[in-house]
Amino acid sequence: MLRVSAILPVALMTYLPLSQSQTVTKKTAPAQAAKPAAKPAAAVAPAPKPMTDEQKTIYALGLSVYRSLGQFDLSPSELEFLQRALSDAAAKKPEVDINEWGPKIQALAQARSERLAEREKAQSQAYLDKAAAQPGAEKTTSGLVYKELAPGAGASPKATDTVTVQYRGTLVDGAEFDSSYKSGKPAQFPLNGVIPCWTEGVQKMKVGGKAQLVCPSSLAYGDRGRPPVIPGGAVLIFEVELVGIGNGTPSQ
Predict the structure, then answer these.
(1) Is 173 among the catalytic positions?
(2) pLDDT tens digits, 42-74
(3) Which of 105, 112, 152, 175 could make an S-S bridge to 206, C-beta 3.0–4.6 Å?
(4) Which of 221, 230, 237, 245 is catalytic?
């Protein structure tokens, strides 16, 4: 049997104040980390002032000049030289003699054009290979890739015939360089007076039909191209609809 004296000290300890040695340390909540200061808002560049009609025309002059320089295949650093030359010429303080270095421009143009053509042909070869592998496509011995898009029911032209066509021409990047649809009426020309790709390809069509002609540069404008619209070595893609042959009534 337990004595009351044995229980009492334990019970009393429950209600007696804690001694100094038993002081409870209160936990303090950790301080929150200071939020980083907000970044200042980026300054908004002022909108350019609207150009006058005369300024727009001068700006267009710059675009035209740049387009005419396409055959030179200028790098960004070379464009800086060109801009410097314009500034120096305006200040009448050129750093080189135009009479000495001007005659070398044509040779540079020729070399750069050849470089551009080789690069264009290398890039275009992949497109030709892909086009030739499409269902229904036919690659001829000349390199033309011909694909019928819609069958015709009429006659096929000869190389000596004049044909009436609707067509759209694009580069491999999809850029359109020519279209009869923009004029609102079909084009007419002798079939032996156009690029070899057309002379060969359109003869495979029948009046009322539509076809795609993928033309390697050797059957189009070669390494020289038709700057600034068609680069040297470019593959050309035409969608052609044969409307009629000769002066006969076009098909409807």
Answers:
(1) no
(2) 666 677 788 899 999 999 998 888 888 877 888
(3) 152
(4) 221
